[in-house]
Amino acid sequence: MRKPGLILLLICVLSGPAGYADDKLTIVKAGPVGEVANLAEANEIRVVFSQPMVPLGKIPKVVAAPFFHITPAVKGTFRWSGTTTLIFTPDQKTPLPFVTKFDVSIDAHAKSVSGKSLDRAYNFSFITPTIRLLSTNWERKKLRTKEHPFTEPAAPQQPSDEYKEKLDAAEAAANFRR
Prior knowledge:
By secondary structure, this protein is α+β, with helices and mostly antiparallel strands.
């Protein structure tokens, strides 16, 4: 009864690394993708490969990934999480700007430990959060501008002269009707 289980275990162990020989190198998952809700979601840019990209136990302290490109350019560091997940962490001293589209590409020449390359370049993009007004507090005849919570810091701006004229005309019309 133990022999079939032992044979199955032996087949699994022997076919493990050799199983990569016929497989193509692919990217299983990458992200973030699309618009992120807050900047914390873009603190790490991850690319998960289908095969080991670095030998187990021999991951260098300083990681270079010449096949990884991000536009617009961002300062940061690379690290490996295991042998298949590459993580790019943007420099915390220069945080990613709001309302910006980032295009990430992985060149086709990226090679796994087994020597396999991607069939073609892999591309994805994400957008950092856009400013959104979270709520307003209205008082009679004016908007309390100090209490506008936005999703990011926003400096108050004075209304243009043209807008002030329209506002004065609307207020005068409202007073005339009383």
